[in-house]
Amino acid sequence: MSVTVTTLQQGSGESPLKGDKIVMHYTGWLKDTSQPENKGKQFDSSIGRGTFETAIGVGSVIGGWDHGVPTMKVGGKARLEITSDWAYGARGYPPIIPARSDLIFDVELLNFIPAPADQRKPWPANWFDNVTLN
After folding, report:
1. Is 20 noted as a catalytic residue in this protein?
2. 96 catalytically annotated
3. FRET label pair with 133: which of 9, 80, 97, 105, CA 20 to 30 Å apart?
4. By residue range, what is the domain housing residue 73?
5. How many structural domains are present in the chain?
6. Can 129 be counted among the known catalytic residues?
7. Does residue 64 lie in a domain region?
8. 93 given a catalytic annotation
9. Buried b (16+ CB within 10 A) or exposed e, 27-60
10. 134: in domain
11. Is residue 95 reached through a cis peptide bond, with omega within 30 degrees of 0 on the bond before it?
């Protein structure tokens, strides 16, 4: 289980905490090491469709996002390289994502909305143990 976060553009200010609602743009590809930048078939993108909003760190998205996005700051852009066990694992997401597929996402953190104070939590000490920052 791991995610590698490569910063493409530094953001500024705070990073989201557990439970905050993130506002993102993203494009996702199947990882294919025979292709430039390891980007295989594109399977989804919010570009042109509208922003993607969800709570982070609470299991509403794949593990690679839950662990990778909190390393970012607002305005930041990053590439997330996510192993299959932190993506859709052995089941995949048929017919779009085959079983055991590693994924690549280019993401932009446009904003985040803090969760109510009683729901907003700091990240556990070991939350980022399987996150590699580039």
Report:
1. no
2. no
3. 97
4. 3-114
5. 1
6. no
7. yes
8. no
9. bbbbbeeeeeeebbeeeeebeeeeebeebbbeee
10. no
11. yes
Q: Which is catalytic among the residues 62, 82, 97, 104?
A: 62
What is the C-alpha to C-alpha distance for residues 45 and 26, in angstroms, rounded to an integer? 6
Residue 123, amino acid: W
What is the spatial distance between Cα 50 and Cα 94, in angstroms, rounded to a whole number?
24
The one catalytic residue among 20, 22, 26, 66: 26
Q: Looking at residue 72, which CATH number applies to its domain?
A: 3.10.50.40
Average pLDDT over every residue of 62-71: 98
Determine, yes or no, domain membership for 49. Answer: yes
pLDDT digits (tens, 9 = 90+) for 11-65: 999 999 999 999 999 999 999 999 999 999 999 999 999 999 999 999 999 999 9
Exposed e or buried b for every residue in 5-19, given b needs 16+ CB within 10 A? beeeeebeeebbbbb
